[in-house]
Structure formats: C-alpha cells, structure tokens
Design a protein that fits this description.
By secondary structure, the protein is α+β, with helices and mostly antiparallel strands. The protein has helices at about 30-40, 50-55, 110-120, 140-145, 155, 165-170, 170-185, 185-205, and strands spanning about 1-10, 15, 60-70, 75-80, 85-90, 105-110, 125-130, 135, 160. A six-stranded antiparallel sheet has the order 2-1-3-4-5-6. Strands 7-8-9 form a three-stranded antiparallel sheet. Strand 1 and strand 2 (about 15) form a beta hairpin. The radius of gyration is 19 Å and the shape is globular.
C-alpha cells in the first residue's frame, strides 16, 4: 500500500501529501505519535488512547486517508472522530476523480479489514493453530507488526473464530501461524529482505 495523503477535518484541521520518503521530526509532545495513530485509525485500528482528548475538545470531525493498494486501485477511507466502528471507502479513478456514488462502500471494522487484506493480496479466511483451534488474520496485525504498536491489546488485533478461551492463552501460536502463512504467500519478497538485512548487518559490523 502507498499512502498518498491524509486530511483531518474540523477546527483543528490537517492536510499532508506523502512523498516517496517521509521523515517525521519534532520534540516530545508535538504530535508525532498522534499523527501516526491517525493513519492507523483510518486503517481500522482501535486507537483509544488519543481519542479522549479529541472527544473532550471536539476540535476534529473526521480523518480521511487516500491510498493506493497493491492491486493498483486508489481509495479514500473516511472515519469519524473521536470514534466510529464503521468506515466509508470511496474509490478513485486514474485521474483521482471520485467514481460513481454507487461505488462508495460502507464497512464495519471487520469487513474493512477483510477488504484491505484482499486489496493487498494477503491470505484471508481461517488460520489453524494448535489442537484444531482457528483464528482469522486481521489487517491490524500487519499494522502492529509494521509500527511496533504495543499499546493495542492483542484481542483487538486478531479475531477469534471459536468460543474457546484458548484463543487468549495461545497468542504466540496464533502469531506464528499467521507469520508462516504470510511468508509462504510472499516468500520471494521475504528472501530479498533477508539478503538485504544480512548485507546491512555485515556492513555495520565492518
């Protein structure tokens, strides 16, 4: 996925157009983490620890994230602030014009996760782990991995498909099963990354 732009509407508005490479600099408490969490929030993550401030002062109304998926389709996701459990997804054409209103989709967070996984080419559906238990991949898991987001609870990252409490007790097994499935889907890319990492490690040691 390539992020194209982000916009926050309201009294405290924001608009940023992403470049090929983006560096976020600033002193403590200047909003770097909030900026990243706005991106995560627009991608369906349950970000709660910055929502209370937004709710109290009502300075922000919604966040819109414009991105292009691996399938080459551009979308704008709109999610209300301070919290909403649904998102609106607006497709764009090649000239970045909004397509027919009939193409606009409204998803709950689980449906939105499945939509993003499909657009990014990741395996969906059921993942088995230990003794026939099952879980399902959520796009939030990929985001947590990417940004090392340790503030979001595990149960918010993965969806339990059964009634067993083994789901909570076997997070390590679930993570391992998901990672193995993702790597098998993207094995060539993973191998290239490993080679690059090995080269960087050798360069650093020298």
């Amino acid at each position: 996925m390539r992020l194209n732009s982000i916009k926050v509407s309201g009294e405290y508005g924001l608009r940023y157009d992403f470049k090929e490479e983006n560096v976020l600099l600033g002193a403590n408490t200047t909003g770097k983490t909030t900026f990243v969490k706005l991106i995560l929030y627009a991608l369906g993550v349950d970000v709660l620890d910055f929502i209370e401030e937004i709710a109290e002062y009502k300075y922000c109304e919604s966040v819109s994230l414009h991105y292009t998926t691996k399938k080459g389709q551009s979308f704008c996701t709109i999610r209300k602030l301070p919290y909403a459990d649904i998102v609106m997804v607006v497709p764009y054409d090649i000239e970045n014009d909004v397509m027919n209103d009939e193409e606009v989709q409204v998803f709950n967070l689980e449906e939105y996760s499945n939509f993003l996984l499909a657009e990014e080419g990741y395996p969906g559906g059921v993942i088995s782990y230990g003794n026939g238990n099952k879980a399902s991949l959520r796009y939030k898991f990929l985001l947590r991995t990417a940004v090392v987001d340790q503030s979001t609870e595990h149960k918010k990252i993965l969806a339990n498909l059964g009634a067993s409490n083994d789901y909570i007790a076997n997070q390590t097994l679930i993570n391992k099963a998901i990672i193995e499935k993702i790597l098998s889907q993207n094995n060539e890319e993973a191998q290239l990354l490993r080679l690059e990492l090995n080269a960087k490690t050798k360069e650093r040691s020298e």
